[in-house]
């Protein structure tokens, strides 16, 4: 059994078997990450190919102290954002002036019962801007300041997009039969 | 990290559990790009030591060009200067290029010439000096 450290060393030595092993191990998880950002399967594949090429190309910059999976995930997210930016999918961003987040909160019980298959259905139902901010904030755990920098939008726009995403999600949850109120 | 509410936490947990079967063609595409990178590197054949060698060569050549030329007196230049100086109205005295008179060493002090190459019989006195 090859350890993660051995795989990383193999990738640093440009060993094709080690690179293949890293790809085989992380591609299913990273494919799901890319899929949350991109609706089209072809875009998901493009993101995955670019991201893993970058992983092997920049393996020397990986610090052994951090999580290898987390490092790959960040690269995949960055590649997905680059693709969305290239397609001008992040241009439209609304900003709310007055909003009460409690109006758009969703009960936790809805998420507890949420089936994995419905997650993608819900995310696909969101406009790209909402979906991207929701992904970055809720799933990746970025702060609004970081999201604003990543997407080159204001912090308020990031917050507005999240609230609007949750509002839309609540409507969709109701349609899917989940308790959204 | 942000501080997610309960719904966010649940959603995050479920979403992070998702897996997607990768397209089998993806690995071939990645491998192709990795091969292309390696081939480009081999074709260019550029290594850090090569860059360093080129930089050293260029720097050496530049230093050689920047060095001042050695001051060797040019005889032609000196000759031209000595001819042109009087024309420019220089107050310096012109160099006397005619050697000072020195009496002939050959012959005798009473005026008789001695020839080393002609016999005495063939030597004649010019008509105007004949008595």
- By CATH, the architecture of the largest domain in chain A is named Orthogonal Bundle
The most extensive interface between chains reads: A-B, 40 and 31 residues
CATH class of the largest domain in chain A: Mainly Alpha
Low-pLDDT parts of chain A are none
For this structure, the CATH topology of the largest domain in chain A is: Rna Polymerase Sigma Factor, Chain: A
Radius of gyration of CA atoms of chain A, rounded to a whole number: 18 Å
Order of helices and strands of chain B: HHHH
User: How helix-rich are the residues of chain A, as a percent range?
Assistant: 55-70%
Q: What fraction of residues of chain A sit in β-strands?
A: under 5%
Number of domains of chain A: 2
Secondary-structure-derived class of chain A: mainly alpha
Q: What is the distance, rounded to the nearest whole angstrom, between the alpha carbons of the first and last residues of chain A?
A: 49 Å
> Strand percentage of chain B, roughly?
under 5%
Largest sheet of chain A: none
Please state the CA-atom Rg of chain B, rounded to the nearest Å: 49 Å
Number of separate strands of chain A: 0
Name the average pLDDT of chain B: 75
Tally of individual helices of chain A: 9
Explain what the structure shows.
The complex is a heterodimer of chains A (181) and B (131). Chain A has nine helices and no strands. With 181 residues, chain A is an all-alpha fold. Chain A has two domains: 83 residues, Rna Polymerase Sigma Factor, Chain: A (Orthogonal Bundle); 75 residues, Arc Repressor Mutant, subunit A, CATH 1.10.10.10. In chain A, α3 packs across α4 and α7 crosses α9. Chain B is rod-shaped. Chain B has a domain of 40 residues. Chain B contains four helices and no strands. Chain B has 131 residues and is an all-alpha fold. Chain B starts with 5 loop residues before the first helix and ends in a 44-residue tail after the last helix. Chains A and B meet through α2, α3, α5, α6 and α7 of A and α1 and α2 of B.
């Amino acid at each position: 059994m090859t350890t993660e450290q051995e795989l990383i060393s193999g990738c640093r030595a440009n060993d094709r078997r080690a690179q293949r092993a890293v790809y085989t191990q992380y591609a299913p998880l990273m494919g799901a990450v890319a899929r949350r950002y991109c609706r089209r399967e072809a875009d998901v594949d493009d993101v995955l190919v670019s991201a893993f090429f970058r992983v092997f190309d920049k393996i020397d910059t990986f610090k052994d102290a951090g999580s290898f999976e987390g490092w790959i995930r960040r690269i995949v997210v960055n590649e997905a954002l680059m693709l969305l930016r290239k397609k001008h999918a992040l241009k439209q961003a609304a900003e709310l002036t007055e909003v009460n987040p409690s109006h758009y909160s969703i009960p936790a019980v809805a998420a507890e019962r949420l089936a994995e298959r419905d997650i993608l259905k819900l995310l696909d139902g969101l406009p790209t801007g909402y979906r991207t901010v929701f992904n970055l904030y809720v799933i990746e755990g970025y702060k609004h300041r970081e999201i604003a920098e990543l997407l080159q939008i204001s912090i308020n726009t990031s917050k507005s997009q999240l609230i609007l995403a949750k509002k839309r999600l609540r409507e969709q949850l109701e349609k899917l039969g989940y308790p959204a109120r | 990290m942000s501080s997610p509410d309960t719904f966010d936490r649940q959603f995050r947990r479920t979403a992070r559990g998702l897996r997607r079967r990768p397209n089998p063609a993806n690995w071939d595409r990645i491998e192709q790009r990795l091969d292309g990178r390696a081939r480009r590197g081999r074709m260019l054949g550029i290594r850090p030591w090569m860059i360093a060698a080129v930089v050293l060569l260029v720097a050496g050549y530049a230093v050689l060009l920047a060095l001042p030329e050695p001051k060797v007196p040019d005889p032609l230049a000196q000759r031209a200067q000595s001819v042109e100086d009087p024309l420019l109205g220089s107050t310096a005295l012109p160099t006397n290029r005619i050697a000072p008179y020195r009496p002939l060493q050959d012959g005798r002090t009473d005026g008789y010439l001695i020839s080393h190459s002609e016999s005495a019989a063939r030597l004649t006195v010019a008509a105007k000096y004949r008595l």
